[in-house]
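Notes, Module 5: Reading structure tokens.

Key idea: the token line is not a picture. It is a compressed description, and you learn to read it the same way you learned to read a sequence, by spotting repeated patterns. We will look at two proteins. The first is printed below with its tokens.
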Amino acid sequence: MLLEHYLILSAVVFGIGMTGVLIQRNLILIFMSLELMLNAVNINLAAYSKYLSQISGQVFIIFIMSVAAAEAAVGLALIVSLYRNKQTINSDEFKILKW
């Protein structure tokens, strides 16, 4: 496969993730869309790493995956905490997150 195929796949996955973040009101679905966007970045880094024959892109993928794991733990803890307080995960209901 050519580099362009990976870049097109990454752009489609990133677009789906961005659409999900902008349109969805459910916090879990927004969270999943953010993960899709991170995975699109990982696809880009892996494609360029292979294309340029450098390992630095793969090292960045490891860092992004570790940040995504930490984000998953903290994000899900926040969602559970918000659900316990408001009994909903609809993002329109959370005015407490605004200044």
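Here is the second protein, with the sequence above and the tokens below, as before.
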Amino acid sequence: MAGVSGLIVRASTEADVARCAEIYRHHVLHGTASFEVDPPDLAEMKKRRAAVLDLGLPHLVAERAGRVMGYAYAGNWRPRPAYKFSVEDSIYIDNEAVGQGVGKALLPVLIEQCTAAGKRQMVAVIGDSAQTPSIRLHASCGFEMTGTLKSIGFKFGRWLDSVLMQRALGVGDTTPPLA
């Protein structure tokens, strides 16, 4: 589907995983969006994508002129059965494309597809309270701030917060789920 600034948002393919790994590698090595410290290899990134798809959840990419500029996916919020209607989103944007609307193109599609999959809540766990672009993106898509875990991680020689944001999907908690 066509999107913002010539971006096309679509389901990822296995051929996209190498580019996703490249994008993620930059975030692991240079940023605080991920609390990982060693970038996963291509085989691990393929396993992670397959695990998302096995759950029936979306794994999306945004591309411009045939080049993947970012990716997003949803995973289970927690493994216990009572959480089965809640997901956590993850979005990673090419460092050169930050601020160009890639996240704004990906997140609404992710929300829509998770809603269609019967999910009722989406949680964003934003690495570091200094990640204001991610906080603004989520707020612009209807997420509300639910809390901050202070100094929960340690990376690059400093303590990092995790910001928690949440939004209802579809009817949210207004009715009991059918399944």
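Summary for the second protein:
- The mean pLDDT is 94.
- The longest strand covers residues 144-155.
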